[in-house]
Amino acid sequence: MISLPYMVFFEVATHLSFTKAANSLCISQPAVSKQVKNLESILGIALLERKSNKIKLTPAGKKLYTHLKKAKALQTDILTDVEIIKDELKFSGQLTIGSSTSLSIYVLPKIISQYVEKFPNINIRLINRNNEGIIKALLNREIDLAITEGHVNNRQVQSEHFMDDEIIAICSAKNQYANRTIEIDEVPKLPLVLRELGSGTLMVLEKELKKVGVNSSDLNVKIRLGGIEVLKNFLSQGTGIGFLSKMAVAKELHNQELCQVYINGLIIKRKFNLIMRRGEEPLGLVKIFIREAKKAT
User: Fold this and answer.
1) N or C: which terminus of the chain has fewer CB atoms within 10 Å of its end residue's CB?
2) Comparing C-alpha atoms, which of 112, 164, 136 is closest to residue 272?
3) 222 and 192 Cβ atoms separated by less than 8 Å
4) What is the pTM of this model?
Protein backbone atom coordinates (compact mmCIF):
# COMPACT_ATOMS: atom_id res chain seq x y z
CA MET A 1 0.00 0.00 0.00
CA ILE A 2 1.15 3.57 -0.71
CA SER A 3 2.13 5.30 2.54
CA LEU A 4 0.28 8.42 3.76
CA PRO A 5 2.86 11.11 2.76
CA TYR A 6 2.96 9.81 -0.81
CA MET A 7 -0.82 9.48 -0.92
CA VAL A 8 -1.22 13.09 0.25
CA PHE A 9 1.31 14.35 -2.30
CA PHE A 10 -0.48 12.37 -5.04
CA GLU A 11 -3.78 14.13 -4.26
CA VAL A 12 -2.10 17.55 -4.17
CA ALA A 13 -0.34 16.87 -7.49
CA THR A 14 -3.57 15.62 -9.04
CA HIS A 15 -5.63 18.65 -8.04
CA LEU A 16 -2.79 21.20 -7.79
CA SER A 17 -4.62 22.40 -4.71
CA PHE A 18 -4.11 21.82 -0.98
CA THR A 19 -7.78 22.54 -0.32
CA LYS A 20 -9.08 20.02 -2.87
CA ALA A 21 -6.56 17.44 -1.68
CA ALA A 22 -7.71 17.97 1.93
CA ASN A 23 -11.37 17.53 0.89
CA SER A 24 -10.53 14.41 -1.10
CA LEU A 25 -8.63 12.85 1.82
CA CYS A 26 -11.04 14.13 4.50
CA ILE A 27 -8.23 15.72 6.51
CA SER A 28 -7.41 19.34 7.34
CA GLN A 29 -5.45 21.59 4.98
CA PRO A 30 -2.66 22.13 7.55
CA ALA A 31 -2.30 18.34 7.80
CA VAL A 32 -1.90 18.16 4.02
CA SER A 33 0.80 20.84 4.07
CA LYS A 34 2.61 19.06 6.89
CA GLN A 35 2.66 15.70 5.09
CA VAL A 36 4.03 17.26 1.88
CA LYS A 37 6.76 19.15 3.82
CA ASN A 38 7.70 15.95 5.65
CA LEU A 39 7.99 14.09 2.33
CA GLU A 40 10.17 16.82 0.84
CA SER A 41 12.36 16.65 3.95
CA ILE A 42 12.68 12.86 3.68
CA LEU A 43 13.54 13.01 -0.04
CA GLY A 44 15.73 16.08 0.36
CA ILE A 45 14.25 17.91 -2.61
CA ALA A 46 11.39 20.29 -3.35
CA LEU A 47 8.36 18.68 -4.98
CA LEU A 48 6.12 21.74 -5.30
CA GLU A 49 6.58 25.38 -6.23
CA ARG A 50 4.21 27.62 -4.26
CA LYS A 51 3.48 31.02 -5.81
CA SER A 52 0.70 33.02 -4.21
CA ASN A 53 -2.34 30.74 -4.35
CA LYS A 54 -0.98 28.62 -7.20
CA ILE A 55 0.88 25.31 -7.01
CA LYS A 56 3.21 23.95 -9.63
CA LEU A 57 5.13 20.66 -9.69
CA THR A 58 8.92 20.83 -9.78
CA PRO A 59 10.79 18.45 -12.16
CA ALA A 60 11.26 16.08 -9.20
CA GLY A 61 7.58 16.45 -8.33
CA LYS A 62 6.56 15.58 -11.89
CA LYS A 63 8.79 12.50 -11.85
CA LEU A 64 7.42 11.33 -8.49
CA TYR A 65 3.84 11.96 -9.63
CA THR A 66 4.41 9.81 -12.74
CA HIS A 67 5.71 6.94 -10.61
CA LEU A 68 2.88 7.28 -8.13
CA LYS A 69 0.28 7.05 -10.91
CA LYS A 70 1.84 3.73 -11.95
CA ALA A 71 1.96 2.59 -8.32
CA LYS A 72 -1.71 3.49 -7.83
CA ALA A 73 -2.67 1.53 -10.94
CA LEU A 74 -0.64 -1.46 -9.74
CA GLN A 75 -2.21 -1.23 -6.30
CA THR A 76 -5.66 -1.27 -7.88
CA ASP A 77 -4.74 -4.32 -9.99
CA ILE A 78 -3.40 -6.15 -6.94
CA LEU A 79 -6.47 -5.47 -4.83
CA THR A 80 -8.77 -6.42 -7.71
CA ASP A 81 -6.92 -9.71 -8.31
CA VAL A 82 -6.99 -10.52 -4.61
CA GLU A 83 -10.75 -9.98 -4.51
CA ILE A 84 -11.19 -12.15 -7.61
CA ILE A 85 -9.11 -14.92 -6.07
CA LYS A 86 -11.08 -14.69 -2.83
CA ASP A 87 -14.27 -15.12 -4.84
CA GLU A 88 -12.82 -17.95 -6.92
CA LEU A 89 -11.77 -19.88 -3.83
CA LYS A 90 -15.45 -20.01 -2.90
CA PHE A 91 -16.32 -21.62 -6.24
CA SER A 92 -17.66 -25.15 -6.04
CA GLY A 93 -19.15 -27.63 -8.44
CA GLN A 94 -18.08 -30.15 -11.04
CA LEU A 95 -16.15 -29.50 -14.22
CA THR A 96 -16.19 -32.24 -16.88
CA ILE A 97 -13.40 -32.22 -19.46
CA GLY A 98 -13.05 -34.38 -22.53
CA SER A 99 -9.53 -34.93 -23.81
CA SER A 100 -7.49 -36.90 -26.30
CA THR A 101 -5.49 -39.83 -24.96
CA SER A 102 -2.09 -38.13 -25.21
CA LEU A 103 -3.15 -35.16 -23.12
CA SER A 104 -5.12 -37.25 -20.64
CA ILE A 105 -2.08 -39.37 -19.83
CA TYR A 106 0.91 -37.09 -20.26
CA VAL A 107 -0.20 -33.47 -19.72
CA LEU A 108 -3.48 -33.06 -17.86
CA PRO A 109 -2.72 -34.99 -14.62
CA LYS A 110 -0.24 -32.32 -13.52
CA ILE A 111 -2.55 -29.46 -14.52
CA ILE A 112 -5.60 -30.99 -12.83
CA SER A 113 -3.61 -31.72 -9.66
CA GLN A 114 -2.53 -28.07 -9.39
CA TYR A 115 -6.07 -26.90 -10.20
CA VAL A 116 -7.82 -28.92 -7.48
CA GLU A 117 -5.14 -27.98 -4.96
CA LYS A 118 -5.79 -24.31 -5.66
CA PHE A 119 -9.58 -24.69 -5.85
CA PRO A 120 -10.39 -27.55 -3.45
CA ASN A 121 -14.16 -27.13 -3.71
CA ILE A 122 -14.17 -27.95 -7.43
CA ASN A 123 -14.43 -31.56 -8.59
CA ILE A 124 -13.05 -32.52 -12.00
CA ARG A 125 -14.14 -35.41 -14.16
CA LEU A 126 -11.89 -36.32 -17.10
CA ILE A 127 -13.26 -38.28 -20.04
CA ASN A 128 -10.70 -39.85 -22.36
CA ARG A 129 -11.87 -40.42 -25.95
CA ASN A 130 -10.65 -39.93 -29.50
CA ASN A 131 -11.37 -36.63 -31.27
CA GLU A 132 -14.68 -37.68 -32.78
CA GLY A 133 -15.99 -38.97 -29.45
CA ILE A 134 -14.91 -35.82 -27.59
CA ILE A 135 -16.63 -33.44 -30.01
CA LYS A 136 -19.80 -35.53 -29.93
CA ALA A 137 -19.78 -35.40 -26.12
CA LEU A 138 -19.26 -31.62 -26.17
CA LEU A 139 -22.18 -31.02 -28.52
CA ASN A 140 -24.36 -33.36 -26.44
CA ARG A 141 -23.39 -31.30 -23.36
CA GLU A 142 -21.90 -34.33 -21.66
CA ILE A 143 -18.72 -32.30 -21.09
CA ASP A 144 -18.01 -28.62 -20.42
CA LEU A 145 -14.73 -28.30 -22.33
CA ALA A 146 -12.91 -30.38 -24.92
CA ILE A 147 -9.18 -30.50 -25.60
CA THR A 148 -8.32 -32.10 -28.93
CA GLU A 149 -5.40 -32.59 -31.23
CA GLY A 150 -5.31 -31.07 -34.69
CA HIS A 151 -8.01 -29.09 -36.47
CA VAL A 152 -11.67 -29.87 -35.78
CA ASN A 153 -13.77 -29.48 -38.90
CA ASN A 154 -17.11 -28.73 -37.29
CA ARG A 155 -18.98 -25.42 -37.55
CA GLN A 156 -20.77 -26.02 -34.28
CA VAL A 157 -17.58 -25.50 -32.25
CA GLN A 158 -14.89 -22.88 -31.84
CA SER A 159 -11.25 -23.47 -30.93
CA GLU A 160 -8.44 -21.72 -29.09
CA HIS A 161 -4.76 -22.75 -29.24
CA PHE A 162 -3.54 -24.58 -26.13
CA MET A 163 -0.11 -26.12 -26.81
CA ASP A 164 2.13 -27.65 -29.50
CA ASP A 165 3.36 -31.20 -30.00
CA GLU A 166 5.28 -33.32 -32.50
CA ILE A 167 4.51 -36.77 -33.89
CA ILE A 168 7.49 -38.99 -34.67
CA ALA A 169 8.09 -42.41 -36.18
CA ILE A 170 9.24 -44.96 -33.61
CA CYS A 171 10.20 -48.61 -33.39
CA SER A 172 11.88 -51.09 -31.08
CA ALA A 173 15.60 -50.73 -30.43
CA LYS A 174 15.85 -54.23 -31.97
CA ASN A 175 14.19 -53.12 -35.21
CA GLN A 176 16.36 -52.73 -38.31
CA TYR A 177 15.08 -49.16 -38.74
CA ALA A 178 16.05 -48.03 -35.23
CA ASN A 179 17.84 -44.64 -35.34
CA ARG A 180 18.02 -44.85 -39.14
CA THR A 181 17.27 -42.03 -41.56
CA ILE A 182 15.10 -42.93 -44.54
CA GLU A 183 13.58 -41.10 -47.50
CA ILE A 184 9.93 -40.26 -48.05
CA ASP A 185 9.56 -42.77 -50.88
CA GLU A 186 10.44 -45.58 -48.44
CA VAL A 187 7.47 -44.85 -46.17
CA PRO A 188 4.90 -46.92 -48.18
CA LYS A 189 7.20 -49.96 -47.78
CA LEU A 190 7.37 -49.74 -43.99
CA PRO A 191 5.42 -52.32 -41.94
CA LEU A 192 3.23 -49.89 -40.03
CA VAL A 193 1.35 -50.30 -36.77
CA LEU A 194 -1.03 -47.35 -36.47
CA ARG A 195 -3.73 -45.96 -34.19
CA GLU A 196 -7.39 -46.73 -34.74
CA LEU A 197 -9.51 -44.83 -37.26
CA GLY A 198 -10.81 -41.60 -35.71
CA SER A 199 -7.64 -41.06 -33.71
CA GLY A 200 -6.39 -37.46 -33.75
CA THR A 201 -2.81 -38.68 -34.13
CA LEU A 202 -3.78 -40.69 -37.19
CA MET A 203 -5.64 -37.78 -38.81
CA VAL A 204 -2.67 -35.44 -38.38
CA LEU A 205 -0.28 -38.11 -39.71
CA GLU A 206 -2.35 -38.77 -42.85
CA LYS A 207 -2.70 -35.03 -43.51
CA GLU A 208 1.06 -34.39 -43.29
CA LEU A 209 1.95 -37.46 -45.36
CA LYS A 210 -0.41 -36.29 -48.10
CA LYS A 211 1.48 -32.98 -48.23
CA VAL A 212 4.66 -34.87 -49.19
CA GLY A 213 2.92 -37.06 -51.74
CA VAL A 214 2.04 -40.14 -49.68
CA ASN A 215 -1.67 -41.06 -49.50
CA SER A 216 -3.11 -43.15 -46.69
CA SER A 217 -4.09 -45.80 -49.26
CA ASP A 218 -0.39 -46.19 -50.14
CA LEU A 219 0.59 -47.21 -46.61
CA ASN A 220 1.44 -50.78 -45.64
CA VAL A 221 -0.67 -50.95 -42.47
CA LYS A 222 -0.21 -54.31 -40.78
CA ILE A 223 -2.11 -53.66 -37.57
CA ARG A 224 -4.32 -50.97 -36.04
CA LEU A 225 -4.39 -50.65 -32.26
CA GLY A 226 -6.52 -48.54 -29.95
CA GLY A 227 -4.57 -46.68 -27.31
CA ILE A 228 -1.07 -45.27 -26.90
CA GLU A 229 0.17 -47.71 -24.28
CA VAL A 230 -1.01 -50.73 -26.30
CA LEU A 231 0.80 -49.40 -29.35
CA LYS A 232 4.00 -48.68 -27.41
CA ASN A 233 4.01 -52.14 -25.83
CA PHE A 234 3.47 -53.80 -29.18
CA LEU A 235 6.25 -51.85 -30.90
CA SER A 236 8.71 -52.56 -28.09
CA GLN A 237 8.53 -56.24 -29.00
CA GLY A 238 10.37 -55.49 -32.24
CA THR A 239 7.63 -55.69 -34.86
CA GLY A 240 6.60 -52.76 -37.00
CA ILE A 241 6.94 -48.99 -37.01
CA GLY A 242 4.44 -46.60 -35.52
CA PHE A 243 3.78 -42.88 -35.20
CA LEU A 244 3.19 -41.39 -31.76
CA SER A 245 3.45 -38.14 -29.86
CA LYS A 246 7.01 -37.33 -28.84
CA MET A 247 5.85 -36.48 -25.33
CA ALA A 248 4.14 -39.88 -25.10
CA VAL A 249 7.36 -41.80 -25.78
CA ALA A 250 9.84 -39.48 -24.04
CA LYS A 251 10.52 -42.00 -21.25
CA GLU A 252 10.96 -44.93 -23.64
CA LEU A 253 13.29 -42.95 -25.89
CA HIS A 254 15.39 -41.95 -22.88
CA ASN A 255 15.60 -45.57 -21.70
CA GLN A 256 16.24 -46.72 -25.29
CA GLU A 257 13.30 -49.10 -25.15
CA LEU A 258 12.07 -47.40 -28.31
CA CYS A 259 14.04 -45.52 -30.95
CA GLN A 260 13.14 -42.87 -33.47
CA VAL A 261 13.05 -43.46 -37.21
CA TYR A 262 14.06 -40.26 -38.99
CA ILE A 263 12.27 -39.50 -42.25
CA ASN A 264 13.85 -36.86 -44.50
CA GLY A 265 11.40 -34.11 -45.38
CA LEU A 266 8.74 -35.18 -42.89
CA ILE A 267 8.22 -33.11 -39.75
CA ILE A 268 4.81 -33.59 -38.18
CA LYS A 269 3.86 -30.74 -35.89
CA ARG A 270 0.42 -30.54 -34.36
CA LYS A 271 -1.51 -28.23 -32.11
CA PHE A 272 -3.69 -29.11 -29.18
CA ASN A 273 -6.76 -26.88 -29.05
CA LEU A 274 -9.32 -25.94 -26.44
CA ILE A 275 -12.73 -26.58 -27.98
CA MET A 276 -15.97 -24.90 -26.89
CA ARG A 277 -19.47 -24.81 -28.31
CA ARG A 278 -19.72 -21.99 -30.84
CA GLY A 279 -21.26 -18.81 -29.51
CA GLU A 280 -20.61 -19.67 -25.87
CA GLU A 281 -18.00 -17.68 -23.97
CA PRO A 282 -16.00 -19.62 -21.34
CA LEU A 283 -17.37 -18.68 -17.93
CA GLY A 284 -16.97 -19.72 -14.32
CA LEU A 285 -15.16 -23.01 -13.78
CA VAL A 286 -14.27 -23.38 -17.47
CA LYS A 287 -12.73 -19.91 -17.66
CA ILE A 288 -10.65 -20.51 -14.54
CA PHE A 289 -9.47 -23.92 -15.78
CA ILE A 290 -8.37 -22.48 -19.13
CA ARG A 291 -6.41 -19.75 -17.37
CA GLU A 292 -4.68 -22.14 -14.98
CA ALA A 293 -3.95 -24.71 -17.72
CA LYS A 294 -2.21 -22.10 -19.88
CA LYS A 295 -0.08 -21.05 -16.92
CA ALA A 296 1.04 -24.64 -16.35
CA THR A 297 2.12 -25.39 -19.94
Assistant:
1) N
2) 164
3) yes
4) 0.56
